[in-house]
Design a protein that fits this description.
Length: 199
């Protein structure tokens, strides 16, 4: 009887795990990233406009395509729980401005290039999937760009960009939490530091 119970319990756990992995529309996520890169990033990168204008276009694109609230909670780690509502809002706004600047410049490396889609990879997190792309370069191997996509109902949002195996959110999380720790848990010190980088 005990053996039957354990077998049933294992089967139920396995089915739950499979459902958790299958609850995201991988094809829809890939199409979402494809539309964003095709109609957004590539047009922004290749547009004959000033860097300031590119940053404004990237800001609009990032606000629409990225779940910055989700990312902000993640990169602040345990400090998100101790942050005041005002600190959270200020951090998200500053984080958005800084990443718009950094990534509009970083993606400029792909000027004149196209993203080639290489399918998706399941995530261990429910409602998430990795969309794999490469960007053929003039010299050397193609650059790998992986997009971590979260689905909520019929809505898709990017929650991480991984270029050449370097995760945007993980790099930020390691940097920011270490900075706060080294400054006595002062979240305002981090916000001030990010604003300095913006200048």
């Amino acid at each position: 009887m005990k053996k039957v119970f354990l077998t049933s319990l294992f089967a139920a756990f396995f089915m739950t795990a499979q459902i958790a992995k299958a609850d995201v529309d991988a094809k829809g996520a890939e199409e979402f990233v494809h539309n964003m890169t095709n109609e957004g990033i590539e047009q922004i990168i290749n547009a004959n406009v000033s860097q300031a204008e590119k940053q404004q276009r990237f800001k609009k694109l990032f606000n629409e395509a990225l779940d910055l609230d989700f990312i902000g909670k993640y990169v602040l780690g345990r400090y998100w729980r101790t942050a005041t509502p005002e600190q959270r809002k200020e951090f998200i706004n500053t984080y958005r401005e800084l990443n718009t600047k950094v990534w509009s410049e970083r993606f400029d490396e792909f000027k004149g290039k196209n993203f080639v889609f290489k399918g998706t990879t399941p995530s261990n997190s429910a409602g998430q999937v990795f969309v794999n792309t490469i960007v053929p370069m003039d010299q050397g191997e193609p650059a790998t760009v992986v997009w971590r996509v979260k689905q909520d109902g019929n809505t898709f949002k990017i929650i991480d960009i991984i270029i050449e195996k370097v995760s945007l959110t993980m790099a930020n999380r390691n940097e920011y939490t270490a900075f706060i720790k080294n400054n006595g848990g002062n979240i305002d010190a981090l916000i001030a530091n990010l604003k300095t980088k913006l200048k």
